[in-house]
Amino acid sequence: MKRRSSYHVQQLLTYIGAYGVLTIFGLLIIFPFMFMFFTSLKLPGDIFRSPPRLLPFAPESVQVADQSVPLYQVELDGRIETMALIDRGSPVVLLASVDDPTRTFERVPRDARPVGGFTKQESIVVDGIERRLWEIEEAGQTLRVFELSRGNTGLFADPENLERTVERSLNDVQPIERVSFDTANYQRVLELQNLDRSLTNTMLVTILVVLGQVTTSILGGYAFARLRFPGRDALFLVYLGTIMIPFVVLIIPMYQLMVLIGWVDRIASLILPWIFTAYGTFLMRQFFIGIPKDLEEAALIDGASRLRVLWQVFVPLAGPAIATQATFTFLYAWNSFVWPLIVINTGNFSNQVLTLSLMVLQGRAADSPALVMAGTSIAVAVPLLIFVLAQRYFVEGIATTGIK
Fold first, then answer.
1. What is the CA radius of gyration of the chain?
2. Do 208 and 326 form a contact (C-beta atoms < 8 A)?
3. Which of 382, 216, 397 is CA-nearest to residue 324?
4. Burial 53-77 (b: 16+ CB within 10 A, else e)
5. Is the pLDDT of residue 183 over 80?
6. C-alpha 302: how far from its chain's center?
7. What is the pLDDT of residues 129-176, one digit of tens each?
8. Could you say which DSSP state residue 54 is in?
9. Domain coordinates of the chain in residue numbers?
10. In 73-183, which ranges are continuous DSSP H helix?
11. Structure confidence by residue, pLDDT tens digits, 190-226
């Protein structure tokens, strides 16, 4: 009994350790996606906060004289009170004496003179940090001081008694914040870059490419697996060998072909050249070879045509292979960037896809990371959902391609 009990305890600890390690690695993998999503819901002031925070926060506010003003925690008479910022004052520089660093002064910038002038202001190293030197007048004496920090003053008032006010530096008060999700970034990014049209184009291109590749792969895979005709194996080897041709080799001839038939800057150029795939044909052929011939012969004896045998016997059995092919094709078509960049003009917003719109957005909204993250979240959401729902087919597809 003791041995059995110790074995169960050891097994339980092993499971806990394994799940713990997997959980840690899982969190590390999903953290970039969480950071992207939460950043897309932040206000501009919250994005550049130091130290950074994962969740989006927004300042608490209160209505004062028909205006919404932020709330702060202000130290008053040894107590921390909630007060509203009703007026922002002038900039303030916090200075410390060079001779006695514990002696500090607050000055507006115009009341301090830079040592050495503004262009060549002298500095001093304090605690390993370089600080700028200033000169101020204090009690009729000229003191050399160094800069500790700078900020603004503010006039704070009790929300329940506006006559009770106090002036404090904004560096000495703490804003009151709450977790808030600003979904307006998604509306702004859709209006800024016409991303809704790009999303529609991407869905159209992806769906048609997936349907085209799955259909041609099923037809080609069945032909190479079941039909006998002269040169079948040699033709299949040649077709399969096209997988080894790098895409960069095909760019120029494919673009010249698009120019010749007048498909440059058109949606058709993103669909029709990609409805044939050697990988998909190989995947379907390998799966169809593993289906017993007795099923096919029985259907043919009953009078079914080849096409009917394919759609009513082989296709229902090839569900895992078709799902694998559709998943791979979907991710490739959705994330395609190089070919749309070449064949679609970046100024043609009506025919752009998501990848092109995100490239332009990255430049236009370089100073607004929340907008860039919102656009990226829109682009990532759909393939991420497809991957989560169809991830088991990735493993099945790898196993299926090895069937002989």
1. 34
2. no
3. 397
4. eeebbbbeeeeeeeeebbbbebeee
5. yes
6. 54
7. 888 888 888 877 888 888 877 777 788 888 888 878 887 777 778 888
8. S
9. 2-39, 61-175, 186-400
10. none
11. 877 678 888 889 999 999 999 999 999 999 998 998 8
Long-range contacts of 333-341, Cβ-Cβ distance < 8 Å, separation of 24 or more: 333/205, 333/206, 333/209, 333/210, 333/274, 334/202, 334/206, 334/382, 334/383, 335/383, 336/270, 338/247, 338/251, 339/251, 339/254, 339/270, 340/270
Tracing tokens 């044909």 back to the chain, one arrives at: 281
Asked if 113 and 134 count as a contact pair (C-beta separation under 8 A), the reply is: yes
Residue type, 88: R
Nearest by Cα to 313 from 285, 331, 291: 291
Residue 310 is given by DSSP the state: I
Tokens 């259909």: give the residue. 215
Residue with tokens 């160094």, as numbered in its chain: 146
Classify 186-400 by CATH class: mainly alpha
- Pair 333, 205: CB distance under 8 Å: yes
SS3 of residue 183 by DSSP: coil
Task: Output the six-digit token pair for 242.
Answer: 């096209």
Question: Of 386, 377, 400, which is closest to residue 34 (Cα–Cα)?
Answer: 377
DSSP letter at 245 equals S
Phi-psi region of 60 (alpha: psi -120 to 50; beta: other; left: phi over 0): beta
Widest Cα–Cα separation across the chain: 114
Distance between CA atoms of residues 321 and 246, nearest Å: 25
Q: Where do we find the tokens 């795939």? A: 277
Where do the DSSP E strands lie in 170-263?
A: 174-175, 177-179
Q: Report the C-alpha gap between 154 and 84 in whole angstroms.
A: 10
